[in-house]
């Protein structure tokens, strides 16, 4: 693209580095910001840099937080003996939105993925093992994506945690509520038949 | 969404104000930035605020520029007597990419749109009229979108400019190169028959 201004070109280049944002979208976003008040743009810029410079990660669960220990980990209304293991903060938000979980979390910060060069040492796994080893934990729930990477991570974590006196579970896999049977893939459908649950249990939501 | 951090929530809210960016996309972009180096994020933030604070608009054509007079307006290789009127800087970039135009531009900064409350006074029209009135202009070319707003703007500008001794033209409308006839809308097809050009003229590109 032929930019009429170096400043414009720089700003577009920075936006185009964001995931899913190409040159044309970047230009559209930058021109939108150019049409805003200076204070508005200042607020945008400072919100981004402030976030990066001042953000904390909870020393217990590793979730993004404004405090050294996050609100969930420091709450006495949460069951501190049940730890739900998730990939990142988006999963915490998704599970919190269900209002079905009253325990605490542990955020790994990713999944084991040899293809992407992500090994166990790159994730917050040692802190999880230390947390379980320190006692007080009764159950660990794996809430990871049903992908190769998710399964690999569960396999590895199970090996590290199985000698502790805790129960280990994974969230249920099966057909989604509202899902039509004929559109479900064979693996999910096959597994959901093999792991069928008594009708009475399926009613308690 | 339940954010675990106020800083995170602020940054997501700022991103979600951008056009075409919803809460989920905003969160994805913000988490991407969180995983970058501090210097990288600093560069992103400062590129945006620097652009807004230091950008100039060419005093002749109103295009975004790093100088008081932009490179095109100050170039002696460009035909200063032919002014192409466009909506915004993206149109300048699109026309420059064709390498077919050697004249200069005038950027209106928008189109007349009573529905959106944009009147002639909100656009850089007076500076265009003054520019033509000051002499030296031989031709004005309207390169505006073929929409209601574009047509309204052309109608208004034509009224303001028609008493000057200049020729006024609009870019050709018709079927696009590579366009299949059966998929062209009726208005375009009908007009392209009515405004047909001699075969010899159609060959000179």
UniProtKB/TrEMBL annotation, chains A, B:
InterPro entries: DNA_Rcmb_RecR, Rcmb_RecR, Rcmb_RecR_Znf, TOPRIM_dom, TOPRIM_RecR. A zinc finger (C4-type) spans 58-73. Residues 81-176 form the Toprim domain. One of its GO terms (molecular function) is DNA binding. The keyword Transport does not apply. GO terms for biological process: DNA recombination; DNA repair. It holds the Pfam family Toprim_4. The keyword Ion transport does not apply. PROSITE patterns: RECR (PS01300), TOPRIM (PS50880). Keywords: DNA damage, DNA recombination, DNA repair, Metal-binding, Zinc, Zinc-finger. May play a role in DNA repair. It seems to be involved in an RecBC-independent recombinational process of DNA repair. It may act with RecF and RecO. Belongs to the RecR family. HAMAP family: RecR. This is Recombination protein RecR.
């Amino acid at each position: 693209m032929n930019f009429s201004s170096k400043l414009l070109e720089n700003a577009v280049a920075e936006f185009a580095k964001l995931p899913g944002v190409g040159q044309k979208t970047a230009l559209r976003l930058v021109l939108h910001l150019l049409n805003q008040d200076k204070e508005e743009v200042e607020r945008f810029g400072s919100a981004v840099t402030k976030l990066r410079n001042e953000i904390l990660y909870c020393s217990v669960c590793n979730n993004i937080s404004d405090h050294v220990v996050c609100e969930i980990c420091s709450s006495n209304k949460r069951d501190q003996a049940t730890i739900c293991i998730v990939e990142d903060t988006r999963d915490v938000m998704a599970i919190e939105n269900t209002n079905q979980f009253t325990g605490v979390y542990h955020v790994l910060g990713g999944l084991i993925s040899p293809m992407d060069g992500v090994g166990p040492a790159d994730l917050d796994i040692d802190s999880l093992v230390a947390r379980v080893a320190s006692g007080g934990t009764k159950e660990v729930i794996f809430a990871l994506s049903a992908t190769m990477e998710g399964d690999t991570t569960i396999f590895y974590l199970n090996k590290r945690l199985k000698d502790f006196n805790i129960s280990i579970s994974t969230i249920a896999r099966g057909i989604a509520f509202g899902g039509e049977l004929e559109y479900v893939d064979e693996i999910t459908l096959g597994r959901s038949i093999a792991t069928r649950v008594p009708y009475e249990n399926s009613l308690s939501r």
